[in-house]
Amino acid sequence: MAYLTDRKRVEGLGAAGSGTTHHWQQTILSIALVVLIPLFIFTFGTVLGGTYEEIVAYYSRPVPALIALLTLVVGWVHFAKGVQVLIEDYVSGSARKFMIVATNCVSYAAALAGVYAIARLAL
To answer: 49, 61, 100, 112: which one has the fewest Cβ atoms less than 10 Å from its Cβ?
Structure first.
């Protein structure tokens, strides 16, 4: 290791081997949410207060259903990755592993439930 240059020492992905990848994923998800959240508010706001039949008819169209679907999935994946960072920073030992697995299961289950709900409305 004494013969490595400074550049060679810092060229990796960080101490854990995945820090840079995780950061870029969070950045991309954040940019996607900056676009998706206003679109979701705009599309959801038009049917807010409508009857069930109006909402089903509205989300039967592909664009509102796709915007809602993408917002839910991207939001929950972003949440899962963000909570993972918090747990890694503040929890230690075997509780860390358990909490990461538990929050990932809850996050992806909620995303799946959202996909199922939108699919039921759209189809």
So the answer is: 49
Written as one letter, the residue type at 28 is I
Distance CA 101, CA 95 (A): 10
The amino acid occupying position 102 is A
Chain centroid to CA 53: 30
3-state SS of the chain is CCCCCHHHHHCCCCCCCCHHHHHHHHHHHHHHHHHHHHHHHHHHHHHCCCCHHHHHHHHCCHHHHHHHHHHHHHHHHHHHHHHHHHHHHHCCCHHHHHHHHHHHHHHHHHHHHHHHHHHHHHC
**pLDDT in tens for each of the 123 residues of the chain?**
566 666 666 665 455 556 778 889 999 999 999 999 999 999 999 999 999 999 999 999 999 999 999 999 999 999 999 999 999 999 999 999 999 999 999 999 999 999 999 999 998
CB 44 within 8 A of CB 78: no
